Amino acid sequence: MGQLMETILHRRAIRRFADRQIEEEALQQILQAGLYAPSAGGRQGPIFAVCQEREVNERLGKIKRANSRPHMATATSYVSREQPSIADDPNLKNAFYDAPTVITLFGPKNFLFAAEDCAVAAENMMLAADACGVGSCYIGQGWTAFSDPYGQEILRKWGIPAGCYAVMQLLLGYPRPGDPHPAPKPRREGRILRF
Known about the structure:
The chain is of the alpha+beta class. The protein is built from five helices and four strands; from the N terminus they run H-H-E-H-E-H-E-H-E. Helix 2 runs antiparallel to helix 4.
């Protein structure tokens, strides 16, 4: 249990990536962790679309950024001071932060727990990524990356079934050299209620 807890306590969102692709062995371990995630009724509904094409990821990331309407950060309300998000910095134009690998998790449109199944799979993959020395970042509202003709073309190219929608993206890459690992925020009190 010690190693698992160390990974859980160490994992942080990474939004600044080195300019190199992750190793195939690490990617396979990360994907296996996603495949073995719990799913409602054991349905194993999430589909993992792995894209390592820089131009495709950059274009989809820009489409997603253009279709996102995050509230911009204030002095007291922000996502991250260490590695700003698109909600923090209007100068960031790629919602995928130039990650070399982007996994879009698709779920069935008419299944009550599609989003939850994708989120659980993403958490498994983020923990596996951290254990492999790979940085990760969970990006919600995955469908906004595909909301223009180019995005629709990519869905057809990837063979995504019409009955599925993009729940979220998981960004993967090695942390940028020289960047300190993001520090954990203090845990808020009063979040555990016991009866």
